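Review session, final week

We close the course with one last complete record, chosen because it touches almost every idea we covered. It is Transposase IS66 family protein, a protein from Ruegeria atlantica with 235 residues. Go through it on your own first, then we will talk.
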Amino acid sequence: MTKPATFKYFKTSPEIIRLAVMLYIRFPLSLRNVEDLLHERGIDVSHETVRYWWNRFGPMFAAEIRRKRVQQLRAFSKWKWHVDEVFVKVNGKRHYLWRAVDHEGEVLEAVVTKRRNKAAALKFLKKLVKRHGKAEEVVTDRFASYKAALRDLGALEKQQTGRWLNNRVENSHLPFRRRERAMQRFRRMRSLQKFASVHSSVFNHFNQERSLASRDTFKLTRAAALSEWRQLCSG
């Protein structure tokens, strides 16, 4: 657990910092949009302050969320993995963001690589297995590098491919794509990896599958998620 001294040397209250970080990561807003929203609530901070807060506290919040969720969902997340990759421009050059979600849409891992080949696929799958264990089924597209990497891992028989089987992970790319447009792309590979990891944890925390639950259930789970967020890094 993170020590209470996390906010020790900051004049701004932890509640405002958490609110600013949540607005920036959870919603497709720019830093200046967050500054304006906070100003409407009587909070006077600059967009550069919001940038500093998310860089400083975003990874801390994400790590705490991830610690709790990995322990709770470790058994369930091994049923089925959906794996896919998308290209992302970093300073004008094409990079690849590899992502895996489980059967419920929980984002398990996000890794950025410069190449889209067997070595990159193997690196991603090894990291996924190390954190979450071995899956019973792995759904991928027909990209040959997945087959080669799974063969090296001794899990080739677990692979499934099909035209619409991987819609779960392809749809999960959409929230990240919206954030990418709001941020006007990325300038460094390191910043892309950092934001992708933080964004996936925050998305998991607030993703309530509202289309599959009643209104009353959704309101309860949303309130619980917000309450947990307000307690992050509080001791």
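Two points worth writing down before the exam:
The CA atoms of residues 31 and 47 lie 5 Å apart.
The chain has two domains: 10-73, 76-206.
Good luck, everyone.
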